[in-house]
Design goal:
The chain is mainly α. It has a domain of 71 residues. It contains 6 helices and no strands. α4 packs across α6. The longest helix has 28 residues.
């Protein structure tokens, strides 16, 4: 027989996971990352693969968080994996700043109105390099 305290712990853990997951989905929805990505890339016909990718990514990330799994992978794969993380974090930061209209205000203040794409690309590549550095140096 399973003790009541274990059932209560499982219930609280499940409820907490649902709460955090709901908050994450609400955060992504408010920022509009996926719809904006679909709009910018003109890939409306790939909505189902986008949804499946997000769900599979979240489930795989959850599995890796709780399982005691060790991967013995090459440096190239670590670089690719880190790139995916960098792209996601970069998109998340870009979406947040787009919602807050930070970049238009910043570019006007520093006189780069016509060069906003260079500023965005610098931020994106900085995020990618930072993720690669972390994965190759600290995680490997």
């Amino acid at each position: 027989m399973i003790p009541i305290s274990s059932l209560l712990e499982a219930l609280v853990g499940f409820a907490s996971g649902l709460l955090v997951g709901t908050g994450f989905v609400a955060f992504l929805t408010v920022l509009g990352i996926i719809p904006r990505l679909i709009q910018l890339s003109k890939t409306i016909s790939y909505v189902k693969p986008y949804e499946a990718s997000v769900i599979i990514g979240v489930l795989f990330g959850t599995y890796l968080s709780f399982a005691d799994v060790t991967f013995h992978i090459s440096t190239i794969f670590v670089i690719i994996w880190g790139s995916f993380h960098g792209v996601f974090i970069g998109m998340l930061a870009a979406a947040l700043t787009e919602v807050l209209n930070v970049f238009p205000l910043l570019t006007k203040r520093i006189g780069m109105d016509n060069h906003i794409i260079w500023l965005l690309m610098a931020i994106v590549f900085g995020k990618i390099c930072g993720s690669l550095f972390q994965w190759v140096i600290f995680v490997r």
